[in-house]
Amino acid sequence: RLCCVSAQITKGYLNKYSTAHSTKNWVDQLPSAVSNYNSSYHTTIKMTPNEAEKSGEGRHEIRNTALERS
To answer: Are 69 and 44 in contact (CB under 8 A)?
Structure first.
């Protein structure tokens, strides 16, 4: 489920970029979209994915949240 949410958010970012720049060449923007997603605060885990990856604490929070929702 969390994977699907991150994919939807990334897709939305790429769609907005493509519309704003009148281009369909979204592939070049994929690294930026992923970086923006991973740098954004997530209320579910109460930190950014980058912080979760660095701390190790976030992994437990993400796993527990995913288990609660499934």
So the answer is: no
Which structure tokens are listed for 56? 């190790």
Model confidence at 1: pLDDT above 80: no
Q: Sign of torsion, CA 11 66 1 3?
A: positive
* Spatial separation of the C-alpha atoms in residues 68 and 54, rounded to whole Å: 23
Residue 16 in tokens: 């907005």
Among 32, 54, 57, which residue's Cα sits nearest to residue 46?
57
Residue 23 structure tokens: 């281009």
pTM of the entire predicted model: 0.60
